[in-house]
Amino acid sequence: MSLSAYAIRTTPAISSGPDPRSKGPCLEKDWTEDLECYTTGLEEACRPETIDVLKKLKPDPKRDNVTELLHNAAMWSRSATLGYLLELGSNPNDEANGGSSALDMVLRNLNLFRIGSRFGSGVLTAVYGVRSVFDCLRALVSHGADWRPESGYGLNSLRRALERCEPEVTIESLRLFREFNACPAEVVHQLLGTPRMREHLKSQEDSLLRLGIHLDVR
Q1: pTM to 2 decimals?
Q2: What is the 8-class DSSP label of residue 150?
């Protein structure tokens, strides 16, 4: 938490508190003197599960980089904050290739926000275990966010995360991609095209066909 954010959260009269846009060191970090790690009250207000603090700080799209705040909210999988910032005018597709860095971050969180399963336990995560990720995914794609990974790393990272989840997690992701046209067809086929992924989805062939996806399942 930055010094400015800490003061904002603990000061009764927010309007008379420190500037939420000024950067300060992170009190919870070991590298508080590293200028690159300084943060602001607005950035810290994207972390809580509620949007109350952020609303009180009144981010202004004419003054603040609300697209950067969107990325911060995506990092913590805060769907309500994402929705609020998108309504304020955050650009969901901020990458040079027209893709969304916030959406990329949310998909990476499939590895981090899995509930009810231990890493390395061999137990696949069900849809309910990543519900917070899906809430964020829907918030973004319903506002036009596109997933356009620039390298194989993004594809491989999501593929590995999906393989650690039950096949229905992949199907739910694909439904959202299709409903909001959020991912090019060629990227979907690259994501699903490995032998291991085809085997993982073997039980979902009918669901894939209903989505218009044909895989050569061996």
Answers
A1: 0.82
A2: S
